[in-house]
């Protein structure tokens, strides 16, 4: 039973890694490629590390695997965000099929600051105080 769980986790991890690799090859711009590779590799490595934890079935190995998974889950999205923001700052183009650029006109590449925008509010929808 343990070998079947290990094999299933390893296959799931391999599947996500392959899907991430295909995404890097197939997606049209850097931002989509970074997103694909980050999500798929984090999930794939997580499943492979869980397989390792189930295979060895020792507390020390399991704790190292869980710590590594936690590290990947925390640092993967942060690093992808920083890479994408740096790419946007130096002017890497968006895909021509991109419908909306939320940062256009709000991002200052010299200071790396995104200017806040006032949210629209409807005074009519707010409940009136008695």
From TrEMBL:
Secretion signal span: none
Keyword entries, A-Z: Membrane, Transmembrane, Transmembrane helix
Superkingdom of origin: Bacteria
Membrane-spanning intervals of the chain: 6-28, 63-83
GO molecular function: sodium:proton antiporter activity
Name of protein: Monovalent cation/H(+) antiporter subunit G
Organism: Candidatus Abyssobacteria bacterium SURF_17
């Amino acid at each position: 039973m343990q070998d079947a769980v290990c094999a299933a986790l390893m296959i799931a991890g391999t599947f996500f890694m392959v899907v991430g690799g295909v995404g890097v090859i197939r997606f049209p711009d850097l931002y989509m490629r970074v997103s694909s590779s980050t999500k798929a590799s984090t999930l794939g490595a997580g499943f492979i590390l869980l397989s390792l934890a189930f295979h060895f079935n020792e507390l020390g190995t399991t704790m190292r695997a869980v710590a590594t998974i936690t590290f990947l889950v925390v640092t993967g999205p942060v690093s992808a965000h920083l890479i994408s923001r740096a790419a946007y700052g130096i002017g890497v183009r968006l895909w021509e099929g991109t419908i909306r650029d939320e940062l256009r006109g709000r991002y200052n590449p010299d200071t790396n600051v995104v200017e806040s925008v006032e949210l629209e509010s409807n005074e009519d929808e707010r409940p009136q105080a008695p």
